[in-house]
Amino acid sequence: MDVILHLGAHRTASTSFQHYMRANTSRLEQVGVGFWGPLRTRDGILTGVMPCDTDQTPDEQLAAAQARILQNLDRAEKRGITHLVVSDENVVGSPRNNLRKAQLYGGMGERMARYSQAFGGRLTRLVLSIRSQDMYWSSVTAFAVARGHKVLRSEELARLASGTRQWRDVITDLACAVPDVEIQVHSYEVFGGMPERRLAAITGLDEGPSQHAREWLNRAPGLRELREIVAERGEDPGALPAGEGRWHPFDRDQVMALREAYADDLYWLRAGADGLATLIEETASAKAGKQPSADDATRGQTDGKDDRRLA
């Protein structure tokens, strides 16, 4: 059985992809594709991979999680599942922690080493989605403010814009932690609006079912909504810009710096990523529907190979 761990990241249409997979569970199982999403992985199958506040030691929790995961993998295989897609963006960390440290997924290596051990060598493919840093951080900050975070000050935004940890570093840490597993990288700008093509890319099967493929979930809250939320908390809504639509917190120079960082990441990936990962950009479908542009990238989650392979 092909065991594929879809890692997100956050704000790259992960929740919409998970909704698509859940809504098509019966159709997918008919062709041997199984799915574990956050409803099963959180407070369930993956509990204990990352240490929780219990009487057990971290090692004991990991051993219990591994036994539970392997048991469930065996059950899936006996049901005739040939491709199991496990999707949970919280595996790689949290957006709140990213904001606090002003970097993309620090601690990725340690986390992924534990998850690799928990799956007992059964992982065959890791899938990471990436997104232009200006849009990623804009979406993350909007959701953070909606969930209680104060509106970021100019110096905090400057820290985000000048951060030195980029997607290249995340991918490198991932490859070092799980060195013998294929890594696919998908750009949000290509796959964000096409879950059926993402599924085809990660499984190697033909295009997935079209049902529920254009259902958008969890758009980033807009400026009007954010001002209302901030005012309800008793904070100054004037800390946010006037107007409607999406909140773009960065100034022009910061946006350019973040976009340049993303361009560097994509250049590195297209040049072979030092043999660590494969960038998948071709969807090969003329009927897949309109892709979100870089300026309309609002989907995502709220939480909550032979010659082709380069790694």
Please provide the ordered H/E string of secondary-structure elements: EHHEHHEHHEHHHEHHHHE
What percent of residues are in strands?
5-15%
- Strand arrangement, major sheet: 2-3-1-4-5-6
CATH topology: Rossmann fold
Give the name of the CATH architecture.
3-Layer(aba) Sandwich
Number of strands: 6
Biggest sheet, in brief?
6 strands, parallel
Number of helices: 13
**Inertia-based shape:** globular
Query: How many domains comprise the coordinates?
Result: 1
Tell me the radius of gyration. 19 Å
Q: What structural class should be given to the helix and strand makeup? A: alpha/beta
Flag low-confidence runs: 284-311
CATH top-level class: Alpha Beta
What is the average per-residue confidence, as pLDDT, rounded to a whole number?
89
Give the gist of this structure.
The chain contains 13 helices and 6 strands. It is of the alpha/beta class and 311 residues long.
How does this structure look, described?
- With 311 residues, the protein is an alpha/beta fold.
- The protein has one domain (2-308): 3-Layer(aba) Sandwich (Rossmann fold).
- Helices cover 44% and strands 10% of the residues.
- The chain is built from 13 helices and 6 strands.
- The protein has helices at residues 14-23, 25-30, 38-45, 58-78, 95-101, 108-118, 133-146, 154-161, 167-177, 188-191, 195-203, 223-232, 252-270, and strands at residues 2-6, 33-36, 83-87, 123-130, 182-187, 278-280.
- Helix 6 runs parallel beside helix 9 (167-177).
- It is globular.
- It starts with a strand and ends in a 31-residue tail after the last strand.
